[in-house]
Structure formats: C-alpha cells, structure tokens
Design goal:
Layout (H helix, E strand, L loop, with lengths): L28 E13 L8 E13 L5 E5 L3 E9 L16 E3 L4 E5 L9 E12 L5 E8 L5 E8 L20 E8 L4 E4 L3 E6 L5 E5 L12 E4 L2 E6 L5 E6 L1 H5 L4 H18 L7 E7 L6 E2 L4 E5 L12 H17 L6 E3 L5 H19 L5 H17 L15 H5 L4 H18 L1 H15 L2 E3 L1 H15 L8 H9 L5 E7 L6 E8 L21 E7 L6 E5 L8 E2 L6 E3 L8 E4 L1 H14 L5 H16 L5 H6 L10 H18 L5 H19 L7 H17 L4 H15 L6 H13 L3 H13 L3 H11 L5 H11 L7 H12 L5 H10 L1 H8 L6 H9 L5 H13 L8 H37 L2
Helix pairs in contact: 2-3, 2-4, 3-4, 4-7, 5-7, 5-12, 7-8, 8-9, 12-14, 14-16, 15-16, 15-27, 16-18, 17-18, 18-20, 19-20, 22-25, 25-27, 26-27
The structure holds ligand BES and zinc ion.
The site of zinc ion has 5 residues, from α3 and α4.
C-alpha cells in the first residue's frame, strides 16, 4: 500500500491572479512531443549537494487563442526560457510581454506573450534549467548505498507519480495530457543510464561524459517517466514475444542471486497478462530496478518499473515465504499497470481507483498464475475485502470516485485503501456476476478503444455492459452503469439482513442498511445521491444447496423473501465475492455456529473467514449480540486454516488495542491461549508444509507467545540465544520476525543492542526489515526513548523507513505512550524534516491513536488537531478518522466491556471446570 505523501499546499502569494489559480491546466495548449536532455551530476558540490542540469523543448498544438503559456514546474531554476513558433521546425522566438514567473501555489511556470497564439498552429517552449538531486525521494533525486567494499555510492533515480515530473523538467503534468518523449541522459562510465525506452545511441561528450539517447516513447503520461543513472548489475530473461526483461539491482544483490526470483516470474506474468487482456505488451523491453531509497513500495513507470528493494529482491536462504509473496504480488501489480494505467490512464486523479483498484485485483491473478499453491483467491478476503470494510464503515470514508481534488496533497491522499482495496473488491464483485467471458471481453474492447488515451469509469462500465449483452449473461436489474454507480458515487457499503419471519417460518426476509461501525452515527450523513442504498448482487445458499444463487437486492422497493426449510441454516455472500456484510436472526447464527463446531469444512473457507469478520463488526456496530460473535470463535480450536485465523486475529486485535489495560485482558489472553493451543501443537515449530500453512504457523506461534502458551517464549529466546552466542543465525526465515520480536520483548538492552548492530550492518533489505521490526518490540521504556532519537537521524535510519518504525512502536502496548508523546512534542520538527517530501503522516496518526478509548485521550487528540491544523499535511483526514474512532471506542467500552468480560470469565470457568 502506498506510503507516499507530499505536503506542498498552495500558499497565498502576491503573484498576479489569473486562470492559473487552479489545480487544472486549461485546454488551450496540448503537448505533442518533448525533447528532454538531463545531466545528473553524481559528484557532490562543496556543500555535499548534488545537482542536475537540463534542457527541454516541448512542442504544443494551440487549441484556443491565448496570450500565456503556462506549464508545471517545481523547484527548478531557469537560466533560459524561450517560447518559439509557430511553424513545423520552430526556430523563431516569440516576444514575451514582460518576464516569465513562477506560480508557487500551483507550481506553474508562466510566460506572458505579446500576442495571442493562433489556434491550429504549433508552438514550442525551450528551457534551460537546474535542479537539486536531493534526498526527498521525489522527481529526479539521489539515493545512496554502501557497496561491498565499503564505499559510498550515489545514484540518480526518479519518482514522478503523482505530481513530481515537474520537478525534473517543465511539463504539462496531468495524466490525460499524453505526449511522446525523446529523452537523453548524461552519465560517466562505469555508470550507465536507463529510461522507459531502449538506448538508441551513446555519444561521447567532453569531460568524460557519455550521452545516452533513448528511442521515442509512445504517447504517455508524464507521471510514468523514469530516469536512472547507476552502476548496477542485472539479470536478463525474455518472454515468448522476444520482449527483453531485466532486473537491475546493486551489484552485490545481483551476485547473491537476489534478483533471480523476479527475473524468473516476470516473463511468465507478462505472458499471462498478454493472454488475459488479449493485448500485447506495448513496449520493446521491460526493465525493473530495485533502488536503495524509495518512498512507495514500487512504481509502474512504463518499461522501467522502480522498486524499493524489499519489493523486488528475494533470497530463499534468508527471506521468508511472505517476503517471496510480496515480491510476486508487487511485480504482478506493477506489470498489470503496464496496460492498466500506462496504456490507458485516468482522465484525472479522481479516478485513480481505475489504476490502483484494477492493479490490486489482477495482482492476484498474476501471482496465482506463477504460484498456484498460494491460494491467492482465498487470501483476497483478508488482505483486501476486510481491509476495505475496515475504513469504509466509518463516516469519514469517501466515494471511490473522489470529490474535491484541489491540491497535490489531496491527490496524494487518494492512494488509500478506498482506491486500492475497495476498488479491487468492486472489480472482483463485477467479475463474479458478469462472468469470466464477459469480464475479459469488456476489458479487451475497452483497452483497444482507449489505448494511448485517457479514460473514466463510465467508459469501462459501458464496455462491460456491452460485453454482457454480447455474451448473454444477466445484467444488473437497472443496467450495468446505473446500478454500479451506487458503488462508485457514494461511500460505504450495506449490511444485507437475512432474517426468518419467525423461528418457525420458511420465509427469510431480506433488507439492506448502511453498515456503520459507529452505532450512534447518523446513517444519512454526509449526504449521498443514493441515500446509502445499493443495488446488491446477493449470492446466498442454504445448508443443503450445492451451489450459491444470485438474487439482486435493488436500490428501492422491498426485496422478495426467499424460502429456506426451517431445519436448515442459510448463508449470505457465500464465498465472499460481494462488497457487503450479512446479518442473520440469532437462530440462524446459532445453527451456523453448530455447523462450524461439528464440521466446519462443509462451509467454504472464505465464507468462514467472512463470517468471523462480519460477526465481530456487526457486534461492534451494535447490530449483533457479542455472545454470538464470541461463540463463533470456538471452532477455531479445530480449524487450523490461515484464512479463518487471520480473519479472527484481525478482529480480536481490537480487544488487544482497547482492552490492553483493562481487567478483561486476563481472561481474554487465557481464552486465546486456549484456542490456539491445538493449532500451535499441531503445526509445531518445524517450518514445513504449504505456503499458507507456513503463514499460519507464524500466526499460531505469535499468538501462543503473546497470550502465554507455556514454553513458547522460552523456545523463541533459546533460538535467539544460539544466534547471539554462536554468531550463526540458523533460525528459519519464516519464524525470524516472531523469534526476534518475542525475544526482544522479554529481554534487556544486550539483546536489543545486538539486533541494533545487526540492523546497521545488514545489506539484505528484507532481513533488515525484520531486525527493524524486532527493535520496536522492546518493553523497556528507556530503550524505546533512545530508539526514538535514532529514528529521525538519517545516519541510522533511511528516511523511507522512519514512519513505519514509529507506527510499529505505536502498536506495542509498552512503547506507544512514549512514542505518541514524542511525536506530539516533535511534530513541528518531523513536519519540517519530512513535511514537504514524503512521509506517512496519516499512517502515524492512525497507528498511534488506534487504541484511544477514553475521554481524556479524545480531548488530547482534539487539542493535537487544533495545535497542528496547519501542519498535518495529508494526515488531516487521518486525524478526523482518529477522532471518530476514539469516540466509537469510548462508546464501545461503555456498551460492551462488561458483557465481554462476563462471556470470557464464564467460558474460562467452563474450560477449567474439572
Ligand atoms: N502507483 C503506485 C505507487 C505510488 C503510490 C505512487 C503512491 C505514488 C503514490 C504503485 O503501483 C503501487 O500501488 N505500489 C504499491 C504496491 C502495490 C503492490 C500495492 C506500493 O507502493 O505499496
Ligand atoms: Zn499500483
């Protein structure tokens, strides 16, 4: 998930007012082609800074008469700005009406002209400029690493999305304004340059420079450009269509074979997507590179995807199954964008979900293709469906198609769970009801129709609507677009209630209501064009049905009841393709619970996971008695599956958060220790079995150690000690995080210092991430406090990692108070260091406040908001969400703490009874 934020908000200026006081460019000028030449100098100046110089000429067609050229530009210093035209080969300078100037608010370079440009002509803008290759991870920036012989090496790399191409050269930096690009990059051997397209020519220049010129790109958006100058090595592979694929990384990483996995799967995934979309890979080559400093996980630049190392490199000897899955999933996600996002791109950022939701969905198809035993389709419900429900049940959520996107901050804030996970969920739901054939046909025709152009969701939906007609699958009752817009244009999602008219009736009544986690929130706020009703594909089945049935629950009117024999239970949203929860009458819930206890395996595993997720959330929302949700956990002592346990642990973690300091925590941890004992004993510490069994072993051992199953922490500590004393780490990669963390949680500074030292010297990024996480597990206050000082010091911690350390500390019951105090105290400082770059302000705020559940904490949070209202950056929405969840947590404790306590103490008494 995205971690990038930027905080360049428009400021009030004394600059002339005009049409440029707008985040959107006018349609007067249309860029056609850019010729861009950049020279990143990797030798630092006397102050340790690095710089790049460049020239650019952008050719534009004049649509409407205008006496201004304005174009995006940020943090560039110009030595020459020259409008030229009109004509085909443009050499004449156009007279300026006074000086060009820079609009700081919306980041424009504005050039006033003496005379209006003539519609139908072509003009150009030639510029010479300089910019800093800074450490801010945006635009063209520098990244550093220590090579195998201990030397510091600097490379130049880029991250443009969403609005930083303008930081590398002046450009019309909006996704719809596609153009072709002729790029050249200067470098000094042994460094070389790579970009979106293959190198066409290398030319020796004075001063030891070589200029690499690249083939012209197809028509593309500026945010997908990529430029890298480095000394890396690579591994190479080809696909059937002779597309050359390369994985670039630091030389020692390539030497250790860490790029091999990505290199093996890339051609397979590309081929699969070519077949799936039925559209060839659009470029002559596919490069992927792992750079040492990177703000997001990865970026889908066309033909040159850039990753953070943990998302591309994998070493089977020291990295875990989930490290491997991360690589496969991110590679699949970014390669999916090569079509979805790159070949076609959203008209404007408000439809970002078209990119991210789509890639987040097909990432499962791509990963499943190369790793069919990983049960990716089952994993979807915990990784995306339940994640989306988690934020979309709050009144502070937003519609998928965003409103009010007026600043770069607001653009950045769209890289959220709604665009990614909810987007993926809606596409998956559509896939299920339109059927595979119509789904693919619609996509294919849509890609063909809009290739190299901009799109919006209406166009996609039109093509699926048509494909349903062509293939003959039943459309939604009021037409595809009308019905699907109920999911696009309003936030939230429904609960479908399926309740027998009476316990003895065979008639099950169906109704819908908006799901809101906060039982006291106004269900009609904020206003929605559909008043929070949806057109719902309700998949359901009775106990004895072999397969699920689809019935539509419409936006208006009362759905017809369905018939179910009184002796049978029924299940809604069977297989969890729907983006809605289901609630039942108590009798049906109890029948389901009985079934799970006698033979859980007759109910599909996604459904089992979703039952747990629905029950706990409905209970939290005051729509279901907590006794039922808790009764539903009892079958977990028999069901060892990762999907069910992960679903349960995700919801139970709420108890850990808000009840961590309550008397409830005693019987709660006893009950969990009881539940997990079977699976813990069954899976043992021996790290074998299928992928998800390996995942589940981590859950089982983690829960066993956390809730006090005898011997667990001792076992972890013993494995750690062996490493600590012998210097040889023979802990299986899958269990390293757990072993490290539980050892550091239960030991002192010697062990912590040992891990800290290992962390400083570790060159494998995934291993480093495990060590980093372990450091956040300490329960010793002074160690936490000392760590906090290290975190913001770039000599110890890469800036890309700082926010996740703070988040992890905040999830540690023993560290969170110290951490939050520190963050509040240092907020201005943190904001000044990271504020104008990238940093997950929203992540920090939500992680560090997620346990808030008292009036006092609420007050504190409100004060925090007031004190920092001007410097919350993209954390503003997160702060509002935090205030809302604190309120609901307070109410939750008042309403449920006692009854949960009673259930748990009774259950433990029953279990412990002789
Ligand atoms: N387009 C994004 C990268 C991005 C994120 C750019 C935020 C600008 C702001 C990329 O496709 C992406 O989604 N990357 C994910 C990984 C993916 C597997 C979910 C990421 O960076 O975490
Ligand atoms: Zn993406």
């Amino acid at each position: 998930m995205a971690v990038v934020t930027s905080t360049t908000a428009p400021q009030t200026t004394q600059e002339p007012t005009g049409p440029w006081d707008n985040i959107r460019l006018p349609e007067d000028l249309v860029p056609i082609n850019y010729v861009v030449d950049l020279r990143p100098d990797l030798e630092p100046d006397a102050n340790g800074k690095n710089w790049f110089t460049g020239t650019s000429e952008v050719f534009m067609d004049v649509n409407t008469a205008t006496n201004h050229i304005y174009i995006h530009s940020n943090k560039l210093n110009y030595s020459r700005v020259e409008p030229r035209g009109p004509g085909v080969s443009i050499t004449t300078s156009l007279a300026m009406n006074g000086d060009w100037w820079l609009h700081s608010g919306y980041q424009y370079l504005i050039i006033p002209l003496m005379t209006d440009l003539t519609p139908g002509t072509r003009v150009s803008l030639y510029t010479e400029f300089e910019g800093e290759l800074s450490d801010d991870l945006g635009g063209l920036y520098r990244s550093k690493y220590t090579d195998a012989s201990g030397n510091q090496v600097t490379i130049a790399t880029t991250q443009m999305q969403p609005t930083d191409a303008r930081k590398a050269f002046p450009c019309f930096d909006e996704p719809a304004l596609k153009a072709t690009f002729d790029i050249s990059l200067w470098h000094k051997p042994p460094n070389f340059a790579i970009s979106n397209m293959p190198v066409m020519a290398n030319e020796s220049m004075t001063g030891g420079w070589v200029k690499s010129t690249f083939e012209q790109t197809p028509k593309m958006s500026t945010y997908l450009l990529a430029f890298v100058v480095c000394d890396f090595d690579w591994v190479e592979n080809t696909t059937i269509g002779e597309i050359q694929t390369r994985i670039y990384a630091r030389p020692d990483q390539v030497l250790q074979g860490n790029a091999d996995y990505a290199s093996d799967i890339t051609p397979e995934i590309l081929k699969h997507f070519e077949q799936y979309f039925n559209v060839s890979y659009p470029l002559p080559k596919s490069d992927q590179i792992a750079v040492p400093d990177f703000a997001a996980g990865a970026m889908e630049n066309w033909g040159l995807v850039i990753y953070r190392e943990t998302a591309l490199l994998y070493n089977p000897d020291i990295n875990s199954a989930s490290n491997k899955q991360r690589v496969a999933a991110v590679v699949a996600h970014e390669l999916a964008h090569q079509w979805f996002g790159n070949l076609i791109s959203p008209l404007w950022w408000d439809e970002l979900w078209l990119n991210e939701g789509f890639a987040s969905y097909v990432e499962y198809l791509g990963t499943d293709h190369v790793e069919p035993t990983w049960r990716m389709n089952d994993q979807f419900i915990v990784s995306d469906l339940q994640r989306a429900f988690g934020v979309d049940g709050l009144t502070t959520s937003r519609p998928i198609v965003a409103e009010n996107v007026n600043t770069p901050d607001e653009i950045n804030a769209l890289f959220d769970t709604i665009s990614y996970s909810k987007g993926a969920c809606i596409i998956r739901m559509i896939n299920e009801f339109v059927g595979e054939e119509a789904f693919k046909l619609g996509l294919k025709n849509y890609l063909d129709a809009f290739a190299y152009g901009p799109v919006n969701h209406n166009q996609l939906f039109e093509y699926w609507e048509q494909a349903q007609i062509d293939v003959g699958t039943a459309p939604p009752p009021n037409g595809f677009r009308a019905d699907m817009d109920t999911w696009m244009l309003q936030m939230g999602f429904p609960t479908v209630n399926m309740k027998r008219q009476s316990p003895t009736s065979t008639s099950v009544l169906i109704s819908q209501e908006r799901f809101l986690l906060d039982a006291t929130a106004n269900p009609l706020e904020p206003t929605s064009p559909y008043a929070y009703k949806w057109t719902i594909p309700l998949w359901w089945k009775t106990q004895n049905d072999a397969a699920k049935t689809l019935d539509w629950v419409e936006l208006t009117g009362t759905p017809a009841p369905v018939t179910v024999p009184t002796t049978e239970y029924f299940l809604g949203n069977y297989e969890a393709f729907g983006y809605y929860r289901v609630n039942y009458d108590d009798d049906n819930w109890n029948k389901i619970i009985q079934q799970l206890l006698t033979d859980f395996s007759v109910i599909d595993v996604r459904t089992r996971g979703q039952l747990l997720n629905d029950a706990f959330n409905l209970a939290r929302a005051g729509k279901l008695n907590y006794n039922i949700a808790l009764d539903l956990t009892e079958f977990l002592q028999y069901d060892y599956d990762y999907i069910t346990w992960e679903s349960a642990l995700d919801e139970l973690s709420y108890f850990d958060l808000v009840l961590g300091r309550s008397k409830v925590y005693g019987p709660y941890s006893d009950y969990l220790a009881y539940l997990v004992t079977n699976v813990y004993n069954n899976l043992t510490w021996v790290d074998d079995g299928e992928h998800l069994e390996q995942y589940q072993r981590i859950n089982a051992i983690g829960a066993a150690c956390t809730y006090g199953v005898p011997g667990c922490v001792e076992n972890a500590t013993q494995q750690f000690t062996e490493w600590y004393t012998t210097g040889t780490n023979s802990i299986t990669p899958n269990l390293r995080t757990t072993v490290y963390c539980h050892t550091l949680a239960n030991s002192g500074s010697e062990e912590w210092d040992f891990v800290w030292e290992m962390y400083q010297n570790e060159s494998n990024s995934q291993e480093k991430a495990k060590l980093q996480y372990a450091l956040t597990c300490t329960q010793t206050p002074w160690i936490v406090r000392r760590f906090l000082d290290y975190v913001l010091d770039e000599t110890y911690v890469r800036s890309q990692d700082a926010s996740s350390i703070l988040e992890d500390l905040c999830y540690n019951e023993y560290a969170r108070d110290i951490t939050w105090d520190y963050i509040r105290q240092e907020w201005s400082n943190i904001y000044n260091i990271y504020g104008t770059t990238f940093f997950s302000f929203s992540g920090i705020i939500s992680s560090c406040t997620s346990h808030f559940s008292t009036e006092f904490e609420l007050q504190e949070l409100q004060e925090f908001k007031q004190d920092n209202i001007d410097q919350l950056g993209s954390g503003l929405r997160a702060t509002d969400q935090a205030i809302e969840s604190t309120r609901t947590n307070i109410q939750w404790r008042a309403a449920n703490e006692e009854s949960v306590y009673t259930w748990l103490t009774n259950k433990m008494a029953e279990i412990n009874a002789p």
